[in-house]
Amino acid sequence: MDTESAITLARDVPQVEEFLSSTGGRLVHREEDPAGLYWAVVQPTALVNTPFVARISWTVYPHRPPSLLFAPAIGLPTSDPRAWPAASGYRAPNDICKPFTAEGQALHPEWATGPHAWRNTGNPFLFVVENLVEDIDRVGGARAA
After folding, report:
1. Is 0.70 topped by the overall pTM?
2. How many CA atoms lie within 13 A of 96 on its CB side?
3. Which end of the chain is more exposed for a tag (fewer CB within 10 A), N or C?
């Protein structure tokens, strides 16, 4: 990650931490994680369900969407479908086919323009996490497997 991306990302992280905290979750960046890699622990509104752990990896911030995958716990591989939500467009354990992910944008080049184009204004990190939380809550915290 380039220096400009790292500085801009660091500026936006506190709002993401605050939002996740307000929903019972948290944001983690470990010392051993490369620049731009964060783990979002998302607690579904239905508190009977265990939290999801989203691996969010930025390469160029805020100009490109992040890679977004799920793991059973912080630092674990993203290949377990039981770690993934059962939300529409979340194709466990491969990708999330949504405009706010690098994977979705790569699968749909037509999303480069128009209503699905990546927006790099405001706080894109917060935008991604808000969409993620909404998608998980929309399915009541159900898991893909």
Report:
1. yes
2. 25
3. C
Tell which residue, 3, 14, 69, has the closest CA to residue 36. Answer: 3
Element (H, E) at 71: strand 67-71
pLDDT along the chain (145 residues), means of 10: 96 98 97 97 86 98 98 97 96 96 96 94 98 96 92
Give bridge partners of residue 53 from the DSSP assignment: 41, 71
> How far is the C-alpha of 72 from the C-alpha of 88, rounded, in Å?
19
Alpha helices in the chain (DSSP H): 3-22, 102-107, 124-138
**Residue 89: both structure tokens together:** 């467009």
State how far the Cα of 98 lies from the Cα of 68, in Å rounded to an integer: 10
* Separation of first and last alpha carbons in the chain: 34
